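Thread: adenosine monophosphate complex, take 2
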Amino acid sequence: MNKLTIKDVNIKGKRIFISGDFNVPLDKENHIADDSRIRAVLPTINYCLDEGAKVILASHMGRPKGEYKPELSLGIVGRRLERLLHKKIAFVNDCIGDRVKQAVDAMRCGDVVLLENLRFHKEETENDDNFSKQLAGLADIYVNDAFATAHRCHASNVGITKHIHYSVAGFLMINEIKYFERAMESPVRPLAAILGGAKVSSKIGVIENLLTRVDKVIIGGGMTFTFLKALGYEVGKSLVEDDMLETASRIITLAKENKVKFYLPVDCVVADKFDARAETKKVPIQEIPKEWIALDIGPASITLFAQALENAKTIIWNGPMGVFEMDAFSRGTMAMVNIVSSSYALTIVGGGDTDVAVHRAGESYKISYISTGGGAFLQLLEGKALPGLTALTDKGK
Ligand code: AMP
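Output below.
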């Protein structure tokens, strides 16, 4: 990574503006359902505190679309941070303006101020220059540790960097990029990519880019059936994107041309309706009944994929193998978690659903790296730059 990191700058006694992703999932009673996103930023916050800096924290939560929405206030995050850091945090109920300035002016070294949800101002997502300037005015150094929003071009991750001298990567950002580069730029081969999820259309850029870099691609999930239909199979009522059939054929040809081994499921679990209580059976892909829907990969595919991954030295995985939200169709995804987590390869998993599956299986600790980004991770896999990363100060400046 050719960007300055938090280790490259002297932060002692300075006001440090840290962009984090505190967009935590909330349950029905508005309690934090999972605080991993907050925990992911702790190394950066703790480092700043250890170095005697003044820490200003900013994040978005949900999509308030420029309006104040009490249920999306970051107050709840502030309370959790106090427990995690074992210290008092000053929560200000805005992210710009006089009250924020006063709170920041009153800070002493080792203090933490948490700003209110950035997206209560529409200027945040519009990357408004004046708003960016006001955020920048609060601090001496900007630290981006919000990998999950790095594919966005917003005021708090792009605009702000134009008005502050040093914009550097925090430890979470450094880790995300380091693992990604290890996997994609200088991988120990064979490098295998596992792609699942619903649609070909949403991952077409990723597949095309991967076909120029990886040794093997394994396809699962709903997108399987567009490929199978393109190959002439009967897929019943399974999810198919008819406008992607040509693309799917082109991808299969491209894989051959690039000498990438391309694996599709050889069997699947079919259901008579899209329902957790549906009648189900396992069939080879040649025998998908006309009126049935394929909702998971079958046991033979699991064996095939396990064999294909046996010699892999690097594995990247995004997207579930089936409708894993329903128990009856979660076997394929859970089996894939087992295969990946017991592999001796460097294993990198990204995307919300895949992350959930790995945690649900209790296997997260066996994965080399679980990315905190969904969209940002996919954008990297597509071979595209992340605006939030590009905006940081180049090394040597
Ligand atoms: P994505 O956001 O593209 O990664 O897609 C994730 C979604 O794909 C999950 O909610 C799964 O339920 C869904 N999915 C996986 N396999 C299938 C399938 N065979 N048919 C329909 N949806 C699927």
